[in-house]
Amino acid sequence: MSSKTKTESKGSPEEAVKAAVQTTPGGTTEGIAQVAGIGRSTAGKVLGRLTDAGEVTRHQGGRDRGKRLPDRWTLAGVEMPEAYAGYVLAAEQPASPAGDGKGAKAPAADKPAGGKSAPAASASEPADGKLKPGGLDPLVMGYLEDNAGSGPHGPTEIAKALERSSGAVGNCLGRLTDAKKVKLVNEKPRRYSLA
Fold first, then answer.
1. CB pairs under 8 A, 24+ apart, for 149-157?
2. Distance of alpha carbon 74 from alpha carbon 173, whole angstroms
3. Radius of gyration over every alpha carbon of the chain, rounded to an integer in angstroms
């Protein structure tokens, strides 16, 4: 049984990524990788190099209800398409290449194109995304308040929504239970609601 191998060359990954960014301005790393016909990891690395070389511009994704939105890309000097404007930060800040999620976190525009309102920036969450001691408490309380009608909620569910460690969220829920701000509704599996 013989396998087909590609004998024709598509060109370098850099050329493929630049062509993909040109044809899909405002595309995400994932989308650009698909258009370029390369892996997401390779596309991310190439986009990082092209950003450093000044050939493409990274438009950092904002946040929507605790979920980080993906970064979007355009060729240098090309405006972000209006359809994606609500998905990127209003005041763009420098961040690490290729949408690895380690860049500055700030709120997105008031209403992304999806119609959901983005949460306000937390005073306890600095630009590097690390929380000050006790900074997780208001995030967890906010989640429980916003989702009171669909509760009770488990630590893993809350952690995924807030993009935080489930262990840290579990510890936070324990503190909030001791402080009588939330109550443990079910022991196994652990489920919490507002007190």
1. 151/185, 151/191, 151/192, 151/193, 151/194, 152/185, 152/186, 152/191, 152/192, 152/193, 153/191, 153/192, 153/193, 154/189, 154/190, 154/191, 154/192, 155/190, 155/192
2. 42
3. 21
pTM, whole model, 2 decimals? 0.42
| Cα distances (Å, whole numbers) of residue 37 to 22, 65, 120 | 15, 32, 37
Contact 124, 172 (CB under 8 A): no
Q: pLDDT tens digits for 143-177?
A: 888 888 887 888 888 888 888 888 888 888 888 88
Under DSSP, the state recorded for 3 is: -
Is residue 151 within a helix (H) or strand (E), and if so which, with residue range?
none
* Cα→Cα distances 63→87, 131, 150, 168, Å: 8, 16, 22, 21
What is the percent of the chain with per-residue pLDDT over 90, rounded to a whole number? 6
- Cis link prior to 97 (omega < 30° from 0)? no
CA distances to 76, 91, 143, 156 from 185, rounded to whole Å, are 53, 42, 16, 15
What's at 97, amino acid-wise? P
Give the tens place of pLDDT for each residue, 32-61.
999 889 998 999 899 989 988 889 888 887
- The domains of the chain, with CATH numbers, are 13-99 (1.10.10.10), 136-194 (1.10.10.10)
